[in-house]
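Hi R.,

Here's the chain you asked about this morning:
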Amino acid sequence: MAVREILIPYAPREAFAPFHYRAERFACIVAHRRAGKTVAAVNDLIKAALSCDKPNPRFAYVAPWYAQAKDVAWNYLKHYTAPIPGVQHNESELRVDLPNGGRIRLYGADNYDRLRGIYLDGVVLDEFADMDPRAWSEVIRPALADRQGWAAFIGTPKGKNAFYEVFERSVESDDWFSLRLKASETGIVPAHELAALKVEMSANEYEREMEASFDAAIEGAYYAEGLKTALEEGRICRLVRDPLMSIKAIWDIGGTGSKSDARSIWIAQYVGREIWNLDYHESVGQPLAADVAWLRENGYGGCHCILPHDGSTNDRVHDVSYESALKAADFEVTVIPNQGPGAAGMRIEAARRLFPRIWFDDVKTKDGREALAAYHEKRDPKRNIGLGPNHDWASHAADAFGLECVAYQEPGKRRRPESKPIQRHYNPASANSWMGA
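And the predicted structure, written out as tokens:
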């Protein structure tokens, strides 16, 4: 059978040549803005899909949001596959079908359950720093298992979050390809343009966006400093519940009736003048029964559930509210009244005020703390003003955390009995990372 040569209109930039010729199964690229990482990744997917010798090859490009995948990568994917004879572009599913049976499809990590149950021969996770890290660990990684597919993480830093951990692993592991591209070294952006950017951007913004620095602070991060101080003071450690104090389950229930939104639950105890966060749970696209089952399986059955104001609103499908459903499942329930348009700001201020008294279990609250670290203010760069909290994967955990602090009531100034043990154990090993990993 004759082999036909297909010319795709892509000329790799020199900086990405090592990526295209890599032999490792997993890859991580930390790159400055306008380096061309998305174009390189899309073309890497096309080459892999055309050359894969497995039956019905399946490849995916995943962005933090589905709309972003369409805006950023779809036109690139159509453009570079257009010269391939017999190619088919499915606009409604953002999918390209290739003549060899291969398929490349675009997804958003905002609804990562959509990838659950499929298999993949290769995947690109673009701007992984903006994704819920469980999209990888719970859904995408298992999808690669039986066919031993590959994965490439690409993006620009946003502090020391899950993307930083992936990059650190790529540097230390022999079976990972690792590439870090700084604007001052690649020559892709002209020197005079970099000089202009330095004038217009803050020092942190320039270091993060153009020099690919993980050490640069996220602009407007609400709780980064509080988490850092908590680690330094030993308040991120191994916690054991106080048997004399009630268990609180503080919820954020996302959009009413929305299966794509996440539900977040912080498990806490109000112990004297302190708040102990013992556990954290989040579910996406799951029925309420799954969260109730998690509570019971982890020893929190019948605890005191604290819900936001819409917890008393009946959904349109079953005409049942979270409040009534949880009460029917033998939980005590309190619904916090609506605080009005300034509710988000009230939650943030309450959390900042109480942060010096807040403790976290170093293992069970890791996912929640990662979300708190990523929770930040959205800004209008032209007017240089804040627009309130950025609504992304991290906001569900942060909203529940803020509600926890709003619901806290200051106890009377009486001493705790001398005989009452305070069961918490500081784990020095948790100090190796400010995230307590």
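Residues 256-260, 413-423, 425-437 have pLDDT under 50 and may be disordered.

Let me know if you need anything else.
M.
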